[in-house]
Sequence to fold (383 residues):
Amino acid sequence: MALTLRHWFAAGTLGCGALAVALLPPTVTLRERQAWQRESNTRETIANALRHDYQLTLNLSRRDEALAQLRRAPATPGNQPRVLVDERRAARVSLPYRDVVRAAVDSLARRFGPFDTTARVVFFMTADTEFKAAGVAGWVGLERWLYIFPEGTDGRTCLVIVPTGRRSAARLADATSALGPCAYYAAFGRAGPFVAAWLQRMDYYPAIEPDWVAPRARAGSPDFGDQLNYVSWAQALAGAAHFGLSLHGSACAAGKLQRCDAYIEQLPWFLSVRLHRGSSRFMTERYVWRAGDESSWYLADLVREMGRDRFARFWRSPLPRDSAFAAAFGLSMNEWTHRWIADRRPGVRVGPTIRPTSTLLGLFLALALVAGGAYYTLRRQVS
Fold:
């Protein structure tokens, strides 16, 4: 019997079906799937802990080298921020880059002075490492500006480690931004115990942007397309819906004062998974969310509005954070936070509210549909 196209098609279908059945993965029970998930989570937890320890070891070794070199260096007048070049890796730190850093740091005295004598800022220029942590996915190195605060150094020095190298994302265009949280230590000294504890819980993020001198332009709405390069769709949609604020931030801006306390205790999404234990509690890297996040400017805007003297009383106060705020500024921290975020993000609404523009648009669409239906009905009756 001659084979027709139908026979060939049936044979091919049966062959593909047999291969599919043969290659099906083994049946996994719910218990087996849960055991595999637990094992995967355990491996990930161990890998993250190992990478954290490798990174902390690297950070502490560079800290110790910087402090040892600082002890051998001559003092500078006026407690002005100073620049050190890593002696062991000087050949990998280019001369033009050194000149850029030194020129930028020299401008800080005019911008942030006078400096407090109880703390000092040291920029330590070093080279990145190409170390690969065994058994851990990803490199361990110095990719961003690293800040190590006096609690983690010699009790006085706020250390800024400025890395250079192929993977280093830090490019020093402005020493003001590079100064980061160390600007507050340089200008106001050591923070009080409760303010310091709050900053540690927040990974020092409210102090990342230090420029309280220059006026700050109002941020526009987040660019949805740009956000998708580094956040998920859900995070981008949440940012667009709330003007780049978190849910606590938008509720605070809308006048719900009880949510303001949650907002100033809320870490950005990209910091919420970081490990903080031991000496790592006194150091942070420069992570800045480019989608218009306001919380990194919290302390800078507070200095700009309230002035250096009153901010210094809050910064150094031995009182609990909220009591120190009220004593220094004459209002509660929640009240000022609401006023601040509402000014930066006006018009934020939360809850079941309807905007007047939405009501007008709905009425316009309804009238357009009624008019269109009436016109269509009249045309049919005439014809």
